[in-house]
Every structure is written in structure tokens, then in C-alpha cells.
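Write out the bound-state structure for zinc ion.
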Amino acid sequence: MRAVVVGAGGNVGSHLIPHLARMGRFETVALIDPDRYEEKNLRSQEIVPDEIGRPKVLVQAGRLRRIAPDLRVEAHQTFVERVAPGALLADVILSCPDSRAARQHVNEWARRLGVPWIDAGIEADRLLVRVDAYGTGPDDPCLECGWDERHYASLEQRYACDPDDPRAPATNAPSGLGALAAALMAVECEKLIEGRNEEVLFGRELLLDLLHHRQYVTATRRNPDCRLMDHAAWPLTLLDGSSRRRTLRDLLAGGPPERRVSIPGRDFARLLRCGGCGHEEHGLFLTLPGRESVRDCPRCAGSLVAAGFDRTPEIAASAIPREWAETPLDRLGVRPGDLIRLTGETEKPTTWVVGELR
Ligand SMILES: [Zn+2]
Ligand SMILES: [Zn+2]
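---
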């Protein structure tokens, strides 16, 4: 079994790691977290002074391996929005990041990939601990089913990371609060991987108010007006290990000519421009998710970016230049874990996952 932990080194995630190692059910655990440990983290997170300055995913990968030496650990030191979507394919995603945008990203991909996920958070001032679980059925509610304008308005907010950033509310959470959230997550996770689905918190939220010693369980409904109109997972086909030699021409062979190609999360661009020196490159390029820069400028120290007018999330198969269609996928910038999706009017969409999944 495979688990993915988003926000693997933080207030909740760092306390969750030892539980995952001890479950003995996972062959692979993938850790995602962009940050490094800072001195202030000693108060709230599961670390020792020697680990200050080190990437959180590497510290926690080491902790996983010490407890469970046979475990395969993947460490992604980056934002979840920048990870190839296929890396989130798992039996369960455990989500405890410090931003709403990261949760929205997990929610969308968990649905597309058909992966159940468990999310937890804490609020230090009011001593609140929250756990939610999301199933994978088309009628199961998702995170955004319960969102209104306020949630969308605060998508940019990040928590507890930069004390100098006035926008970021400091959580300064007591260690016990994160540890409790992690323990609740671990219990739900064990039920889920044991297949006790009736007992999992799917579609509900458990909230502990430790200031007043109260417990609340609330249910979310599937919202027909949810931003993710279609809650059904995409059927996926694995492009096996030879994908470095695969080309778009192979994938498009024999299909109707009006099909459109997309690499979800990434855009196609026809023009790259350097903000520093004005250098331009024409052709067909793939943008990187969560980043402006597509590549370094060959003329100056700047970087080449695709402007909004020059980028599009999908392209007609007939508009792909022949040279591009015949270039191996990895040389086009397609990464292991990227999805390639073909949609047409006369057929069901086809979605490939590039590279090895597990
Ligand atoms: Zn929804
Ligand atoms: Zn330049």
C-alpha cells in the first residue's frame, strides 16, 4: 500500500510520521513539504535541535526509515501544487498543509485520481482540533462542496510559516494539539486501510473543542453547484517504463482527428518571453505548474515566461507540429507522474499516467 502525506513536516504532519511507520501496512510513503525546520518549530513539531535548517521531508524520511527500515520513502521538497499529479496516486492521502490552496489542490486531485483522503488542522488560540475524511464516490461530498465566497477569498493565506509576514496568522501551536490531530488522523487511516469504510469519517468532520471539552461531528452534503461539477474519478491507463521512448504520435495514432490533448495542471505555450532582456522564443512549450518561469533565458540571468495570452490548457491534436509529436515525451518536458488526457466529441476521454506509479 502507498500513502502520501501533504505537509509532512509540520505541526500535525511531523507527529503523524511515527504512526505511519508503525502501522506496518504501507510499502511506500511519499512525503511532500516545501519547508526547512526553523528554531521556532522546536516548540510545536516532532524534531530535535540538530534538525534545524534541514528540509522537513528529509528529516521525516529519516525518522520513517529508523522506525521501519524496509519502508520505501519518497521525499518531495516542494509545494504539492508543483508535484506531478500521478505522485498523489495512493491508497490514502493524509493532508495537513499550512494553506487552503494546498488543500484545494489535494481535493481536486484526490477526486480525479479516485484516492480517499483525510485532512486535519488545528487552531491554537481556541484549542480546536479538526479531522475530515473524503470518500471517492461520485455522490460523496468533497472539500469544496462546503465552500462559499469567503473560503475562495482566503485561498492565498498561508499559516505559521513566516513570522514577518503580517498576512500569516501565527499558530504557535502547543505540541500536544498537533500530536492529537495526528493521532486522530492515524486512527481514521488505519480504519480506512483495513477496509472498515462504514466506520471511517467519510463526508463528516470531527471537531474537538479542548477549551470547553466538547466534541462535534458534522456532515457535509454533496453540493450540486460545487466548483468541481463532476465528482467521478478519471479511468487511468499506465504508460509503462518505456514511456521515455513514447511520443504523442504513438498516443494519438488511430484516433479521430478532432481530439484535444491536455496535460492537466500544465499549459501549452506558443511564445516565451524574457522579462529582463525581451528575448523571445517561438514554438510549442509546456509550462510548469505553480511557476511562472518555463526555462532560463539564454541571453541574460532572467527567465523565460509564457504570458497569459500565449498559453492554453489544451490543444487540438491536428495543431501539434509534427516535430513535436515525434519527440520523446521526456524531452518535451513531460515528467513521470504527469497525466496526458485526450478528449473528443465522439469518444470517452482517455487519460494516461506517465511512468511508474508505485
Ligand atoms: Zn464538491
Ligand atoms: Zn533575458
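---
The chain has two domains: 2-219, 236-354.
The chain has seven helices and 18 strands.
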